[in-house]
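Hypothesis: this fold can be encoded by more than one sequence.
Test: take the structure tokens below, design a sequence, compare later.
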């Protein structure tokens, strides 16, 4: 020990060690911050025992020793992470052997690694090291080491130091064990609390006829449960075929009005004059054919729910009449003067962009704000692909039950259905399953039974026109003008197309399969030999004109890509290989269309391509 310490009498030395133990025990029980507590312990040892350096290493879950507290080290050494493996260096040897180690002269010790730095002066002075294992319940959990600069050389006695540091290490071990036990119990309580909260969390109950597991549809159902108990007006928005009426009926069935009538009106199916009479009713003799008084839908739905579908299609004049009913909950019948009070919860639905309609003056802003109280957005089927297989099996089971059959669908067909774009959403999927169910054999719907495998599905044609920014047959325009698959070349216009029908824009991309299921060129529909098709061309739809444009003379067909490089007419003579290449280039490498141009079947074209070793281009 240093000379100042050696001059103390044994009695006073024992008193100093006892006092130090007392101070260490107080420090260890003073705080829950383990690292701060260990630093205070090392500071106390330095003050009482003239220790120059002190370090505490604790073993982590990966059995690696990490420096968690130190005293007397430089700021650079404290900033870096110092890890020691079992058996590595002096500290690793203490961990591995669980025995104290005394190094009288660090300069002569080959195991000294000097990881923490600052020991470059060992040639000038004698530095000693004493290290003891930190144990808890008989297991080594760390290492405690101290350094001293000895004025007496290497002949000092370290027995008392080892005994004293062993007692300190035991106190540290018990504290570490206590902290880890408390931390583990805290983590356990947090896991239990989270589990209990999850179990007590209200589970979104299923809605009749709504089949879903995807997160966005589960959020929709949760919103339905939240809004159902109230009288607030609900606006359901989504593309055609997403199930807006099902959601409206679910809101009614879960509301306090479930025993009252649920009245539905399709605003797009009636002209303005009939729509006014249908909603408000009319008096006898108010117009030709009014033989008696007629109650309107608002009157019939009193106390219940009125569902106005396609509300975006009503005229501007009727929007003002509807606004008064929504604001005042009163109206007059057509041809009458008596004001009728009504208590109706209104649920509206549309597939149009009402904000754009308001901006263009086609929809009243005050009516928009009146019906847009609680908005529920239904995602399209292509954005909830996790539900496609579930819905397909549901529709298969429904068809089988309705027709007394035991039907199933195989996995390969489900994979193809999962790759389709589904512009008609759930309604289109149901029709596709029903169509395939009528064609299947042996009670299982397989890949050849699907319409896209027979080149009979033209839904992607509608989807591509929809991406141009206009509604097609009730399909809402896409918010993006980007085609579904920009890498696919557009199919050229058949030569027999009338000039009065304008061709699609040049930048429109057409899927390689009619349904778009092979848009990414997987071995889907192309793996199945299609059924030979009759030589009749399907004319694409005309390009939708921008809103507000006046009708004009039919525009000339858009230039066909590659028309400057390919002949216009089929070569009358020449090898079959050249004629086949000509036809495939003209039709965008669609075998069914090439077969119609050549007067062959699709099977013959497929055989010829393999015979002449022609590689099919994938766009």
């Amino acid at each position: 020990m240093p000379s100042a310490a050696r001059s103390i009498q044994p009695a006073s030395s024992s008193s100093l060690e006892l006092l130090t133990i007392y101070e260490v025990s107080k420090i260890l029980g003073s705080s829950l911050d383990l690292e701060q507590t260990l630093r205070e312990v090392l500071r106390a040892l330095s003050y009482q025992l003239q220790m120059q350096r002190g370090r505490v290493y604790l073993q982590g879950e990966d059995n690696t020793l990490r420096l968690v507290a130190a005293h007397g080290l430089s700021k650079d050494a404290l900033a870096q992470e110092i890890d020691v493996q079992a058996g590595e260096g002096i500290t690793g040897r203490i961990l591995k052997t669980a025995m104290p180690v005394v190094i009288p002269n660090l300069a002569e010790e080959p195991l000294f690694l000097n990881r923490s730095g600052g020991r470059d002066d060992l040639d000038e002075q004698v530095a000693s090291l004493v290290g003891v294992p930190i144990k808890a319940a008989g297991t080594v959990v760390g290492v405690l080491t101290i350094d001293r600069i000895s004025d007496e050389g290497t002949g000092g006695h370290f027995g008392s130091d080892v005994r004293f540091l062993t007692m300190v290490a035991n106190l540290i071990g018990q504290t570490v064990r206590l902290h880890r036990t408390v931390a583990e119990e805290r983590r356990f309580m947090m896991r239990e609390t989270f589990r209990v909260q999850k179990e007590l969390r209200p589970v979104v109950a299923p809605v009749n006829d709504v089949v879903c597991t995807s997160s966005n549809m589960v959020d929709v159902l949760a919103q339905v449960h939240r809004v159902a108990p109230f009288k607030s007006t609900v606006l359901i928005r989504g593309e055609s075929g997403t199930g807006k009426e099902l959601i409206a009926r679910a809101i009614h069935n879960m509301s306090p009005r479930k025993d009252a009538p649920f009245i539905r009106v399709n605003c797009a199916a009636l002209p303005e004059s009939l729509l006014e009479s249908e909603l408000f009713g009319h008096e006898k003799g108010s117009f030709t054919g009014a033989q008696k008084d007629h109650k309107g839908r608002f009157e019939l739905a009193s106390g219940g729910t009125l569902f106005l579908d396609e509300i975006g299609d009503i005229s501007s004049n009727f929007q003002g009449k509807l606004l008064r009913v929504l604001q005042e909950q009163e109206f007059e019948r057509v041809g009458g003067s008596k004001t009728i009070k009504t208590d109706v919860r209104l649920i509206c639905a549309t597939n149009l962009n009402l904000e754009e309609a308001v901006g263009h003056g086609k929809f009243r802003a005050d009516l928009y704000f009146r019906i847009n109280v609680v908005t529920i957005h239904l995602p399209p089927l292509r954005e909830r692909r996790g539900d496609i297989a579930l819905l397909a099996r549901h529709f298969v089971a429904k068809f089988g039950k309705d027709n007394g059959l035991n039907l199933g669908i195989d996995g390969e067909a489900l994979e193809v259905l999962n790759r389709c774009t589904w512009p008609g959403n759930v309604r289109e999927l149901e029709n596709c399953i029903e169509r395939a169910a009528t064609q299947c054999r042996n009670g299982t719907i397989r890949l050849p039974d699907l319409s896209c495998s027979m080149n009979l599905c033209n839904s992607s044609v509608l989807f591509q026109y929809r991406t141009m920014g206009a509604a097609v047959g009730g399909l809402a325009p896409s918010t993006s003008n980007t085609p579904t698959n920009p890498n696919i070349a557009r199919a050229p216009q058949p030569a027999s197309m009338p000039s009065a029908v304008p061709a699609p824009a040049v930048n429109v991309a057409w899927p390689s399969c009619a349904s778009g299921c092979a848009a990414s060129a997987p071995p889907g529909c192309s793996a199945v030999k299609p059924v030979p098709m009759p030589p009749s061309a399907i004319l694409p739809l005309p390009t939708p004109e921008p809103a507000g444009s006046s009708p004009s003379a039919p525009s000339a067909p858009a230039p066909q890509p590659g028309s400057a490089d390919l002949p216009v007419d089929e070569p009358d003579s020449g090898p079959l290989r050249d004629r086949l290449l000509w036809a495939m280039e003209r039709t965008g490498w669609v075998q069914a269309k090439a077969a119609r141009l050549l007067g062959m079947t699709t099977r013959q074209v497929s055989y010829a391509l393999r015979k002449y070793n022609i590689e099919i281009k994938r766009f």
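The first strand starts at residue 53 and ends at 59. The domain at 564-619 is CATH 1.10.10.60 (Arc Repressor Mutant, subunit A).
Hypothesis status: open.
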